Amino acid sequence: MNFEVKDKVVLVTGANRGIGKVILEEALKRGASKVYAAVRNTDSADSLVKEHGDRVVPVRVDLEDPASITSAANVATDVDLVINNAGVLKVKNSLDDDAIEALQFEMNVNVYGLIRMVQAFAPVLKANGGGAIAQLNSVASVKTFGDLTTYCASKSASYSVTQGLRETLRDQGTQVVSVHPGPIATDMGQNAGFEDIAASPELVATAIFDALAEGRFHAWPDPMAQQIGEAYQSFAENVVEADMQEGVA
């Protein structure tokens, strides 16, 4: 299963800045007919509309607000590709006094937000022929870093959900891609203290659309991600991506 973005309609969450903005621009560069900029405040996408005209359509989506997601799905009924990029990060380890509160916040956005998105948009994709979903996970999905323990836990959970979606949505012809960046040069990366080792967001956008076109489930965009992906490859191919019967040990 593979997906070409040319002449397709795309929706990107968190499209007003950082990785999301670069994904939106890459989609347009590759010939997408329209991109819905799914953002919490639609005014934040005004500059994108000014630059790209009616090929960019702002739509309100707050991953913590299920009603906004349902409403967006009722508006964006022509979507072929959903890229769930928006996410949150807290610099917390398990011993911090507010670790549980941090994890609850990250789970609500990074995991429950993903589930809300696919519940709303999977029927839309099915009605439009199947399409595709790309989920921004992280190298933190497969490797826990002590000072980012709660974030890593949430991204491990979102990766688990993404794996399940790959199987669940296969019958309706929806391709699923799990994207695993390392440190990226964004506000989030800077807040986490990664500015000295952060890679370009363009690498993430390129990796997403290349993986879709080539029919790959995993995308490892940047040098750190590629190093981890190479070490993880055997497990990914022989366990995660293998067709295994439920209940088989």
UniProtKB/TrEMBL annotation:
CDD domains in the record: SDR_c7
Stretches assigned to coiled coil: none
GO MF term (any one): oxidoreductase activity
UniProt KW keywords: Oxidoreductase
Pfam family for this entry, one: adh_short
Oxidoreductase is among the record's keywords: yes
InterPro entries for this protein: NAD(P)-bd_dom_sf, Sc_DH/Rdtase_CS, SDR_fam
Gene3D superfamilies associated with the record: NAD(P)-binding Rossmann-like Domain
Keyword Oxidoreductase: yes
Transmembrane segments: none
Family: Belongs to the short-chain dehydrogenases/reductases (SDR) family.
PANTHER family given in the database record: NADPH-DEPENDENT 1-ACYLDIHYDROXYACETONE PHOSPHATE REDUCTASE
Protein name as catalogued: Short-chain dehydrogenase
Species: Rhodopirellula bahusiensis
